[in-house]
Write a structure and sequence with these properties.
This protein has 149 residues and is an alpha/beta fold. The chain is built from five helices and four strands, in the order αβαββαααβ. The protein has one domain: Diaminopimelate Epimerase, Chain A, domain 1.
Amino acid sequence: MSTSARDFFTSKEQEDIRQAIMAAENETSGEIRVHIENTCTGDVLDRAAYVFKQLGMNKTSQRNGVLIYLAIKTRRFAIIGDHGIHRVVPENFWDGIKARMFLHFRENRFKEGLIEAISETGNHLKKHFPYKKDDVNELPDDLSFGKDE
């Protein structure tokens, strides 16, 4: 495994993930981000919620941002959505996506797991938050990394 979250994916893999985010967001007004850190020592959902706010994901106009959070060295991940999403989806909404991600991750196919999760998230979001002609990309599509990564 790479020594740093920033180097975990090659430049080509990062671009493939970015393209998957862009493709998913072309069909929804929802915003998807991927954040990678080396470690998560506390509760992974608490950490993901903190990063969500740090990235300003709670400031989208429809409150429909989704964060896919990975801590690579401690092998933990989470998916967290904003309030707008949670008002319209069932409580266990992310469980199926996380289970499929885990199947990829345990075989060290991290890029494939992320791309599938991004695509599936986009498909779900477009049902509740369809793309409209005047939609604006409110958040960057690039991967983000922890400060010391």
